[in-house]
Amino acid sequence: SPDIPLANVKAHLSQFQSIASANGGNRAHGRPGYLASANYVKGRLDAAGYTTTLQSFTYNGATGYNLIADWPGGDPNQVLMVGAHLDSVTAGPGINDNGSGSAAVLETALEVARQGVNPAKHLRFAWWGAEELGLIGSRYYVNNLPVTERSKIKGYLNFDMVGSPNAGYFIYDGDNSDGTGSGPGPAGSAELERVLQGYFSSIGVPTEGTDFDGRSDYGPFIAVGIPAGGTFTGAEGIKSSAQAAKWGGSAGVAFDRCYHRSCDTTTNINDTALDRNADAIADAVWDIAVSPPSPGT
Length: 297
Ligand code: PHE
Ligand code: ZN
Ligand code: ZN
Ligand code: ZN
Ligand code: CA
What we know:
By secondary structure, the chain is of the alpha/beta class. Helix content is 38%, strand content 19%. It has 9 helices and 8 strands. It has helices spanning 6-21, 32-48, 95-114, 136-143, 147-152, 189-202, 219-223, 241-247, 271-290, and strands at residues 51-59, 62-71, 75-85, 121-128, 153-159, 170-172, 208-210, 228-232. It has an 8-stranded mixed sheet with strand order 1-2-4-3-5-8-6-7, sandwiched between helices. 53% of the residues are buried. One zinc ion is lined by residues 3-4, 6, 275, 279.
């Protein structure tokens, strides 16, 4: 599977930062920085050959947008979706939350185009609006999908905060194998967890499960029975000494001290964590949809 260029992912983060700076310091639902962010991502995807749709919805008296991008080809009855929320809170530019997931998913989509991939399964990428107000955009998408279209989505991979400065390496615990928190998710979620784990074990990075509690845009998907998975490098939680021993960084300090704050800027990113997660996204997309093992092998 491909090595996603970290410099390209970081260039998207610089664009999100510039967009926020030019639009009152944020990229929040209903603010001009949100639509500018959506148009930036859409422009890159359109130029690469994607079929894109801006889906609008209304929330809190403001128009919000989901950006959906389909890569032509693949089995239309077996769709893999990969997504990230593109909105920030109003307090700041939202570069780790969630410029990081948005940029890593975008660069994976652009890698698909650069390689002229002819995938086995159909690939659909999504950037959600109004996640910060309660998963509004992703819920709107799922709830407005015809049931026949819904049944074609075989999995959804979500990336929300994948460059936390004091990073942990968490994978959504789709099978609740650690027995804490919530889960298990729909059958198939465990397989997505295993695929992501497989990448991190291949690079020798230990991971932990994180509660599959619906605290990001996979929530509406699992609510209708679609298997989901994803990674996370931590938010307001505090890194333990055991976690600092295996991952590095600072014990007793939040994974992201700038979570939902004005200091969530381009300096609030751990390049190593962002690079590993971008490569993990691409690896999962390739393993599941581009070149899956053929049946019987
Ligand atoms: N969804 C949370 C936010 O955007 C962050 C989060 C992601 C929390 C994944 C837990 C798990 O603020
Ligand atoms: Zn890389
Ligand atoms: Zn957030
Ligand atoms: Zn988030
Ligand atoms: Ca669990």
